[in-house]
Write a structure and sequence with these properties.
Blueprint (H helix, E strand, L loop, with lengths): L7 H6 L2 H14 L8 E4 L5 H10 L4 E5 L2 H10 L4 E4 L12 E7 L8 H10 L1 E12 L9 H10 L16 H8 L4 E13 L2 H5 L7 H8 L3 H14 L5 E13 L1
Parallel strand pairs: 1-2, 1-4, 2-3, 4-5
Antiparallel strand pairs: 5-7, 6-7
The structure holds S-adenosylmethionine.
């Protein structure tokens, strides 16, 4: 959680470039339609919140996140949205408040993912949908695959993000079932992001965002140079595209 106490534009330049196109696919998967009320759990700086506002209007959308800079950024960007500070495990909303409760790229950061999903189900009205997605860090088709492969080449003992909840195939559905959500459907969504230069790809890793940014931040300069060079060897010549896949689950309440 500390690694998300960063300026909103640092997140936007790093994971935001993958999260924005993913949000477009995720709202489709969650069947978000006008007339509904929706909650964006772990909204970050608002990649998904923005699409929910486009579809439903600001007053029909609520958002929550524990990171103070992200809450401030989302509230400033969407003044009509009810943006709150808090965590999935203790949602400050009444039972049955929303038709759609979504968590994009959040379950793997929850301290108790089952409790978080159970809370998401509680605030969703009967017949509504809970939906979650998490990058495929365990299967190495996530957006950070090249980075963590390069790190493991140099430092085989480094702890990457592959053990986190929901990052392996089928695990999101298992977590939903443990949270009492019986009717689950799983899928995989993929986005592609183009980089004009290697520097455009590398620089966001130096901004301290998330576990990858935290890993780079604790390296000394020779260590950082070694990871950077290994990444450059592993990537194609610029310009190049990075493909990023996320496991998704949606569950009827
Ligand atoms: C990778 S970011 C995703 C942000 C946004 N949903 C997006 O797709 O761009 C993960 C977010 O989860 C938030 N987060 C971490 N732990 C959380 C928890 N227990 N409950 C809700 N959100 C949490 C972080 O503060 C961060 O904003």
């Amino acid at each position: 959680m500390v690694s998300f106490n960063v300026p909103a534009d640092a997140y936007a330049r790093f994971m935001g470039q993958y999260a924005e196109p993913l949000a477009g696919l995720f709202v489709e998967l969650a069947d978000v339609r006008p007339g509904q009320h929706a909650l964006d759990v772990g909204c970050g700086p608002g990649a998904l919140t923005g699409l929910l506002v486009d579809r439903l209007s600001g007053p029909a959308v609520a958002a929550i996140d524990p990171s103070a800079p992200f809450v401030a950024a989302t509230a400033a960007r969407f003044p009509d949205v009810d943006v709150r500070s808090g965590v999935a495990e203790h949602l400050p909303f009444q039972d049955d408040s929303f038709d759609r409760t979504l968590a994009q790229l959040v379950v793997h950061f929850m301290s108790d993912p089952v409790a978080g999903l159970r809370e998401m189900a509680r605030v969703t009205s009967p017949g509504g949908l809970v939906a979650a997605c998490v990058w495929d860090h365990a299967g190495d088709t996530g957006p950070l695959a090249t980075f963590w492969q390069a790190v493991r080449d140099i430092d085989p003992g480094a702890s990457d993000e592959s053990d986190l909840a929901g990052t392996r195939e089928g695990h999101l559905a298992e977590l939903c079932e443990a949270a009492g959500l019986a009717s689950t459907e799983s899928s995989k969504l993929t986005v592609r992001v183009r980089f004009a230069t290697f520097a455009d790809w590398w620089e966001p890793y130096t901004m301290g965002v998330g576990p990858a940014g935290a890993y780079v931040a604790q390296l000394d300069e020779p260590g950082r140079d070694a990871v950077r060079s290994r990444c450059a060897q592993r990537l194609p010549a610029a310009p190049f595209e990075v493909s990023a896949s996320a496991w998704c689950v949606r569950a009827r309440v």
